[in-house]
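Reply to dn_fold:

You asked what the input looked like. This is it:
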Amino acid sequence: MSDPTSQTYSLEILAETTGVSTQLIVQYQEHGILPPHFDDDTVRALRRIEHLRETCEMNLRGLKMLTQLLDEVEQLRQELRTRR
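and this is what came back:
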């Protein structure tokens, strides 16, 4: 659901913007938690992932599963909104 006018970021800028290390961002990419390109949606997703990791103390597998479920819930909510 990326906006075509969304700002794109380099790995270093994403790390600086979110306060997450470049190594951890790369790990998230390697595990399929983050997409290969970085945009405004990635910034929001990374902040959500870090919040979940810190508050729920989840490992990478758990983070991936939970983020997929949250994305699916959001998609279903949008579908319901369009039906009304």
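DSSP finds four helices and no strands in the chain.
Hope that clears it up.
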